[in-house]
Design goal:
Elements: E1 3-6, E2 9-19, E3 22-31, E4 34-35, H1 46-50, E5 57-62, H2 67-77, E6 81-83, E7 90-95, H3 114-130, E8 137-145, E9 159-167, H4 168-189, H5 191-199
Antiparallel strand pairs: 1-2, 2-3, 3-4, 3-5, 6-7, 7-8, 8-9
Helix pairs in contact: 2-4
Amino acid sequence: MAVLTSEELSLEINYSGFEYGWVQYEIYFRWQGESILNDSILKRNGEYWGSRPSDSLLANEHRECCILPLLQKVIVSNDADYCEPVEPDITLAIYPVHTFPFLPSHWKLVYEKENHKKEREEREQLKQEKGVLPDDLIDMMLLVDTYNFKGCSAYSGDGICLKMTVRRIQLEGFYENLKSEYITFKNKFNVDELNKEDYGDGWKPLEL
């Protein structure tokens, strides 16, 4: 499972199918292992929405996963970026340097213990030498469009948003787990072969 956690809050992303050239995702938000969603308001009509597992949100992307390239780019570059599928069921934004609300902090340092000051200064020195550290904090925000909700007939750009702060080492582990699941998924559903049938020899599979 590809699960990212912050304290008791968790985000899980699964690959569920590949139909008509679309990579299908199931997304779960949980607190202490229980869904934080009201399952009764999620869309259930039709074959696609009717196949929704309990407490999951659905999204899809055309031909290849869009989340893995985003994770890979952010981990390598340490720059903020986001991804949004062709059909904008979700928007995932990652901020490795700045933290929510992405504005200058209003906090003012009043007092700092000497041992804390020493630790902070040593870490700042290490950051200057190494650039990135395994315990760097990274903010993630995942917006799920209201199109997932019953009665919503079109994408709105509004919805529910999960904000998580994780360590770099956690994000790297999440990427590796999701990549492993995607490789298994691609083999199971013959994704590369089907894409090549549609696009010919010019088709280039996603490099992971």
